[in-house]
Design brief:
2 copies of one chain form a homodimer.
Chain A: E1 17-21, H1 22-35, H2 51-59, E2 64-67, H3 70-78, E3 84-87, H4 94-105, E4 111-115, H5 118-126, E5 131-135, H6 150-159, E6 163-169, H7 180-201, E7 205-208, E8 222-223, H8 233-236, E9 246-256, E10 261-264, E11 279-280, E12 284-288, E13 293-296, H9 303-306, E14 313-317, H10 321-325, E15 330-334, E16 354-359
Parallel strand pairs in A: 1-15, 2-3, 3-4, 4-5, 5-6, 6-7, 7-8
Antiparallel strand pairs in A: 1-9, 9-10, 9-14, 10-13, 11-14, 12-13, 15-16
Helix pairs in contact in A: 3-4, 6-7
Amino acid sequence: MTSSDDASTLATVPTPALIVDRAVFDHNVATMGARWPGAALRPHVKAFKSTAMAAALRTAGHEGFCAATTREIEGLAAAGLGTDLLLANESVDPRRLASLGRLVRDGLARITVAVDSDETIDAATSAGLREVLIDVNVGLPRCGCEADDAGRLADRARSLGLEVRGVMGYEGHVVGLEDRAARDEGVAAAMHVLVAAHDVVGGDVISGGGTGTWDSNTWVTELQAGSFTLLDTAYAALGLPFRPGLSVLGTVISTNATTGFAVADVGLKALGMDHGKPEVDGSFVWFCSDEHLTFGPPRGTSFADWGVTVGDRVSVWPAHIDPTISQHERMHVIEGSTASSETARVVPDPDAAIIEVWPVDLRNW
Amino acid sequence: MTSSDDASTLATVPTPALIVDRAVFDHNVATMGARWPGAALRPHVKAFKSTAMAAALRTAGHEGFCAATTREIEGLAAAGLGTDLLLANESVDPRRLASLGRLVRDGLARITVAVDSDETIDAATSAGLREVLIDVNVGLPRCGCEADDAGRLADRARSLGLEVRGVMGYEGHVVGLEDRAARDEGVAAAMHVLVAAHDVVGGDVISGGGTGTWDSNTWVTELQAGSFTLLDTAYAALGLPFRPGLSVLGTVISTNATTGFAVADVGLKALGMDHGKPEVDGSFVWFCSDEHLTFGPPRGTSFADWGVTVGDRVSVWPAHIDPTISQHERMHVIEGSTASSETARVVPDPDAAIIEVWPVDLRNW
């Protein structure tokens, strides 16, 4: 199989390929860390699924991580990143939970799991897990108990010998609202529910929030955010101080001067499509197929003036980084340019050196 | 890492997990093979990305395959399935094409590549490849030369010593049309263009078509189809004789009786979302998050009567199989039931034995 491990610059990396701008990543981490230093930030590895990137966040002072799958938790522990791991999701899989329980028993990781029902509390207990957060529904129709059931569940957990560290609640229904006032109002309403549940449950931890509410969520003791590291076109629309640092590098494999479009090898299998089409600077994206991106000149520009030809490299900006990264085996990290820090989006230099490769080692289940 | 290799029934397989109904697969392959026997069918492995499944198709008599990526081609060759491989896509990557060229030189595979420009012809020649098809644009804005340029490109290819086996053209803009008459009209118009190009280019091969035009495309000498093997909800809407045989098994991890929904662990990272939401029988799907599917009772049914509880297994039917399969490491094959052949969709028996595991070994690039 062709591997990109031996490519030293973007000019020779096989495409499609994930490109991370290290300067942008560092800028984003520093910006977030100024508001949420150390353990106040619990980076969500579901966004990037890479222990190498998690290690870079630990170097920046953030030792606790949260995750959406047991495989992410196991991978973080195996990579020596198990200081304080939170499975911010429910599981009733006895084998997988027992595997986490063994990591705890053997002192290989501190693992807390979210619970929101009798069944998930019982499953955690049976698996030999010791610490939980009561997951509270704060408005997003997903996991989390009703707030008025949180106290009962905490009592049940404690009666079974579990340590209840506190509560968790994710205001995912408001983190993406582009209207700043509506977003602020939504987070306040959601956190009002969470804090009330915490008053009953007790414990040191109120965990929640995300990239979109990083500066408006003043209620949580730790912020669960992941997308801020590299952003995407959806979050870029919110006017946050974080910058887009993840693109998918493609190669133009075909052009059609008659109709006026070109085709690059960045298809929907190389992108998360749930938030819509990706963007290409100086172009208009028509649509994605499995392995193709059809795109053309922007309105008012002729195909000839657009100047795209077979063999050109293009940077494709995904609408949602989480499911984009999870489609790839690795991220290619380039140095990037701090000089461009005022620019919203910096297109990678086609000859940029690849300074690191971050395996996407936490994919799959 | 938790592996599902040692799970023997669906009751114990970790979720989310791809489930293939072998009886449905066999029905679909037999139905297609009756119209397109042997080499007349060139199964498109991009749909399923598995050499094990390709081997099952070879057992059914289909020895030639087409693929969308060089990695698919290399994987098929490595698995001993290199009798007649077509890269039905353009590439100008010198290293990857050279890798295919070595397979040809060493007699490990017969490989034909699609070309649609001077650049792709030159790249194939430089790589030591010997056989090409002229890819013709028949209406889908993607790859393929303009029909009136096909003769010139064939001449150029031959002048460089390449064998031009014929033409290829994919009517992807019409294969999904639900209106049968419009679909038939569209395929006729597209194939009129392709046949005219073939008249100029020559060669034995007219390659094209797909699952949606399997019985209306009477012009091609070989059909490029892949989705017919397992279908999806998008193709199921066309009234074809193929049946849905691929589901994603999930586990209910949370329920909310107050609002009336449940959450399963089949999120958008376990699904292709470009064709829209998946379906769950007897339920209404609300939305997908990265690792969650929120769904509720159908209209007119109360949450209590719906009866979904934590720990239940659910079958999730994807809207598009190609990017669903490519998110997974393996497919779990169950025997299925031929007795249900008249039923449009058979929900897998929760205790069904897993008779085979098909690795999705052709993922990534």
